[in-house]
């Protein structure tokens, strides 16, 4: 029997679902190996079902989304967060703790209407997440590798090294030595150091690497390179606003 799969989206740009649709050479084989019950970006034919694996994109920003996410969780053996919004809250979380939701809505829409909207939170704020596929958007090969494991019922191996490792493997010169604040030491690898390889500093789009010692040592590297804590915090906010310990950088 083919594994039953659902692909869902909440608040975000839908780039991760689009990345799945853009699999081109592999898409037909992938879809042929699955019993795809729900993928609204690809088809309006949605079948209410239980799922062996649910891939969920986007952050949670409304009570209705929270309820829908909880339903998906109840129906799924494995729930996978795909992309940064689902994994960490995304760019839309960058003002969490600074501006209240009401202030943001007033700023953007200019009205005093009371909105039923939460601060943007990752899926893990509300339900158990079995695996996280980071990225903004997710990496195609990483998704295919993870999907192959998940569809056999195994959890894939998570990337446990920072972007700097991939930079070294590609023999890139370090941008920090050019005076740029590159978030590579603090960021989950897996993108083959895409930005530094093009001479552009990493903005941390794959999220913060786990491990207190690693985080401390990366922050120490930034300090020693002369970057002011306020500047480091501001750069980190874009993708790490739901990591209060990171934002307490001194
Ligand atoms: S350029 Fe960035 S990612 Fe590459 S080694 Fe330097 S700090 Fe790390
Ligand atoms: S180098 Fe950094 S910003 Fe660029 S894709 Fe990789 S994680 Fe994202």
Report on this structure:
With 250 residues, the protein is α/β, with parallel strands linked by helices. The protein folds into 2 domains: 4-151, NADH:ubiquinone oxidoreductase-like, 20kDa subunit (Rossmann fold, 3-Layer(aba) Sandwich); 163-247, no CATH class. The protein has 11 helices and 5 strands. The protein has helices at 15-21, 27-33, 63-75, 84-88, 101-109, 140-151, 163-169, 194-197, 212-224, 229-240, 244-247; strands at residues 4-9, 35-39, 51-57, 76-82, 131-133. A 5-stranded parallel beta sheet has the order 2-1-3-4-5. Strand 3 (51-57), helix 3 and strand 4 form a beta-alpha-beta unit. The protein is globular. The model has no long low-confidence stretch (mean pLDDT 90). The chain binds iron/sulfur cluster (2 copies). The site of one iron/sulfur cluster has 13 residues, from helix 7. Residues 163, 187, 191, 193-196, 202-206 line the site of one iron/sulfur cluster (SF4).
């Amino acid at each position: 029997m083919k594994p039953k799969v659902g692909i869902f989206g909440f608040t975000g740009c839908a780039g991760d679902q689009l990345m799945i649709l853009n699999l081109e050479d592999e898409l037909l084989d992938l879809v042929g190996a699955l019993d795809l019950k729900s993928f609204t970006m690809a088809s309006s034919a949605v079948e209410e079902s239980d799922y062996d694996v649910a891939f969920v994109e986007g952050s949670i920003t409304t009570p209705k989304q929270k309820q829908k996410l909880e339903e998906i969780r109840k129906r799924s053996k494995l729930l996978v967060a795909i992309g940064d919004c689902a994994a960490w809250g995304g760019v839309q979380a960058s003002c969490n703790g600074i501006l209240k939701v009401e202030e943001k809505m007033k700023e953007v829409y200019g009205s005093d209407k009371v909105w039923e909207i939460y601060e943007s939170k990752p899926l893990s704020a509300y339900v158990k997440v079995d695996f996280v596929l980071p990225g903004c958007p997710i990496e195609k090969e990483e998704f295919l590798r993870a999907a192959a494991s998940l569809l056999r019922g195994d959890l894939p191996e998570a990337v446990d090294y920072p972007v700097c490792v991939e930079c070294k493997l590609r023999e890139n010169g370090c941008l920090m030595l050019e005076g740029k604040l590159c978030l590579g030491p603090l960021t989950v690898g897996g993108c083959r150091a895409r930005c530094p390889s093009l001479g552009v500093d990493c903005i941390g789009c794959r999220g913060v690497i786990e491990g207190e010692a690693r985080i401390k040592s990366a922050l120490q590297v930034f300090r020693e390179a002369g970057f002011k804590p306020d500047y480091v915090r501001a750069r980190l906010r874009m993708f790490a606003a739901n990591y209060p310990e990171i934002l307490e950088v001194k």
